[in-house]
């Protein structure tokens, strides 16, 4: 049977997928799939901006040092060097192609400052930087007749040798595409490609309180692990310190750039408390600010602290942060220029992910990962604010360059594609117990919030692993016997990501960056040891119902 076959397949329409696709379209035909609409993902939510050392007072070395300091000794310094140098080229290229950032009185990009940055280096488009970049990239893509975007198409599994080799012990070496479900009809077909880029975002949705939109269920990380990719540093989940205390879903984020303009944190006794925790006070790195808030809340038993933006002034709030200012006013009845904003930390960013080399290549041939799905090594134990949009651009661009130079954008194993079988739905039936699926999802999120949040302990982690193993087992039961749907696939991916996070956290018996163990509060005196989970192929194989069992 002939299945659609492209030169490039990109999973995800966030900044990393779109930038990869644009670059790849210079080399061949590109299909981009997204399980949602083309403007989906975290990218559209990014408010603060994108970091680059373009000011005459700044330098890539200063940006490098700030990144490494925030990463708490765990950054891959070579990756960081690449980020801060290549990043400037990517930004210049986008501006050259017409992307507009908010400018200062001299017509140069207005540069904001955020926690952990020693210089003003945050380029932004008001307070909707991610949306501006995503819209711009989508406009560029519309002009290309060799890029196709397939909305409501969700990747389920990566296609590797395991799907068609007779031997169960076949070594997985190559990726041939993905099995993809059309979420409107639940029809499943393989989409084949010579080169595949996973750009499917983070896994914030493993937590019940998160700034991440519903798309962020860790699909890329889970499916790569199942296919045989190594996964790095999943214990480092960044909690954003200042998220509006409300029922909104996703949680409404109040950009740290507001603190860069003078907003301060205050507890319910009216005390500005951050100076007690760090010399940089409100501009300390995110992990420190989040833990400080957590500690204040535990001391007082309160549910939130306040962000005091009054000193920023109405004019600045309305002009520099119009989205935040107006949303707070219109949707939550809070005028930030006169009223304190109740805030709490919420899960925000997945620092770890699919282990890649400096060119975005995973340990499976022809399979690349970029953006929040990937672990390139730049974030170490804690991401510096506004480095993730930059990382997405830099490593997507490098991936395409690598495909061009290493493979000359060609593959010589085309006959293998003919072996790819259709998806096998045998023995499955439509889900009848939707209540249980919803319950299992809540259970996973509850475990993550209660046992593996901002402050952790060894015994709680051990308990969490025991529970998640049972829940994951239940999820797999449903997965194997049910007709697949977006909800079920996401549930399975969330359960696996939760398990990967807990297992990684258990491996690291020290506190470092975002991973804080109350019973081991110090860093071990060693330079850099990553947590790498290598898939147990037996487990991965057993998991797949869609394998040739012969
Ligand atoms: C509220 C908020 C504010 C932020 N602010 C900043 C900031 O100011 N600066 C900064 O640098 N970073 C910021 N970040 C982080 C940054 O936005 C993200 O890390 C970055 O946008 C991730 O881009 P991405 O391309 O990797 O993924 P995303 O933008 O998350 O896109 C993922 C895409 O993959 C699709 N997808 C997922 N699974 C599948 C599947 N199985 N099949 C098909 N498609 C799939 C999704 O539908 C989506 O299209 C912020 C994040 C949030 C949530």
Q: How many H/I helical runs?
A: 14
Overall CATH class of the domain at 434-543: Mainly Alpha
**Global Rg:** 23 Å
> Judging from the principal axes of the Cα atoms, what is the shape?
globular
User: What class do helices, strands and sheet pairing give?
Assistant: alpha/beta
Strand content: 15-25%
In which range does the helix fraction lie?
Answer: 25-40%
Instruction: Let me know the largest β-sheet.
Output: 7 strands, mixed
Number of strands: 19
Give the termini separation.
21 Å
Low-confidence stretches: 537-550
Structural description of this entry:
With 550 residues, the chain is α/β, with parallel strands linked by helices. It has helices at 15-24, 60-70, 77-96, 129-142, 219-227, 257-260, 286-300, 314-320, 322-332, 388-407, 434-451, 458-481, 486-507, 537-543; strands at 5-11, 30-33, 50-51, 122-123, 147-150, 153-160, 175-182, 187-198, 231-232, 237-244, 264-266, 305-308, 341-350, 353-355, 367-369, 374-375, 455-456, 516-517, 532-533. The strands form five sheets. Strands 1, 2, 5, 6, 7, 8 and 15 form a seven-stranded mixed β-sheet that branches. Strand 7 and strand 8 form a beta hairpin. Helix 1 (15-24) packs parallel to helix 10 (388-407), helix 2 crosses helix 3 and helix 12 (458-481) packs antiparallel against helix 13 (486-507). The two termini are 21 Å apart. The model is unreliable at 537-550 (pLDDT under 50). Flavin-adenine dinucleotide binds at residues 11-17, 33-36, 40-43, 45-50, 129-130, 154-155, 199-201, 211-212, 215-216, 219, 253, 349, 371-373, 386-389, 392.
């Amino acid at each position: 049977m002939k299945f659609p076959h492209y030169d490039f397949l990109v999973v995800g329409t966030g900044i990393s997928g779109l930038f990869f696709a644009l670059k790849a379209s210079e080399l061949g035909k590109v299909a981009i799939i997204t399980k949602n609409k083309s403007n989906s993902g975290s990218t559209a939510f990014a408010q603060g901006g994108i970091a680059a050392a373009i000011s005459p007072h700044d330098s890539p070395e200063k940006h490098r040092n700030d990144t490494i300091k925030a990463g708490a000794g765990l950054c891959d310094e070579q990756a960081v060097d690449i980020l801060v140098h290549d990043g400037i080229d990517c930004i210049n290229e986008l501006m050259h192609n017409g992307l507009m950032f908010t400018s200062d009185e001299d017509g140069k990009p207005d540069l904001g400052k955020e926690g952990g940055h020693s210089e003003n280096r945050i380029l932004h488009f008001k307070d909707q930087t991610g949306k501006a970049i995503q819209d711009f990239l989508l406009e560029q893509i519309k002009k290309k007749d060799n890029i196709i975007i397939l909305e409501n198409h969700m990747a389920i599994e990566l296609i590797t040798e395991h799907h068609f080799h007779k031997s169960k012990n076949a070594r997985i070496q190559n990726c041939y595409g993905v099995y993809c479900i059309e979420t409107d009809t639940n029809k499943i077909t393989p989409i084949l490609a010579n080169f595949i880029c996973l750009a499917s975002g983070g896994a914030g949705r493993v937590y019940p309180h998160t700034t991440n939109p519903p798309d962020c269920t860790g699909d890329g990380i889970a499916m790569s692990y199942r296919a045989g990719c190594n996964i790095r540093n999943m214990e480092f989940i960044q909690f954003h310190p200042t998220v509006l205390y409300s029922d909104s879903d996703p949680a409404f984020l109040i950009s740290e750039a507001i603190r860069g303009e003078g907003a301060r944190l205050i507890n319910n006794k009216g005390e500005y408390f951050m100076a007690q925790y760090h010399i940089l006070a409100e501009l300390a790195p995110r992990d420190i600010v989040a833990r400080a808030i957590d500690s204040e809340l535990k001391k007082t038993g309160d549910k939130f602290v306040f962000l005091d933006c009054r000193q920023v002034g109405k004019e600045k709030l309305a002009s520099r942060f119009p989205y935040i200012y107006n949303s707070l006013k219109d949707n939550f009845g809070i005028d930030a220029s006169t009223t304190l904003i109740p805030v709490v930390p919420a899960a925000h960013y997945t620092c770890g992910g699919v282990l890649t080399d400096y060119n975005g290549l995973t340990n499976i041939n022809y399979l690349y990962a970029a953006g929040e799905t990937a672990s390139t090594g730049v974030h170490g134990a804690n991401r510096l604010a506004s480095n993730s949009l930059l990382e997405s651009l830099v490593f997507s661009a490098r991936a395409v360059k690598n495909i061009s130079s290493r493979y000359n954008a060609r593959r010589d194993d085309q006959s293998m594609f003919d072996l790819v079988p259709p998806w096998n739905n045998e023995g499955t039936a439509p889900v009848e117990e939707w209540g249980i699926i919803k319950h299992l999802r809540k259970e996973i999120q509850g475990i993550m919030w209660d046992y593996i949040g901002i402050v952790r302990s060894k015994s709680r982690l051990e308990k969490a692993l025991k529970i998640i193993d049972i829940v994951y087992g239940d999820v797999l039961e449903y997965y194997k016997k049910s007709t697949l749907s977006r909800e079920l696939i996401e549930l399975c991916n969330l359960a696996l990501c939760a398990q990967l996070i807990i297992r990684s956290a258990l491996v690291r018996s020290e506190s470092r960056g975002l991973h804080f163990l109350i019973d081991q509060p110090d860093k071990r005196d060693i330079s850099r040891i990553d947590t790498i989970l290598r898939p147990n192929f037996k487990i991965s194989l057993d998991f797949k119902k869609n394998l040739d069992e012969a």
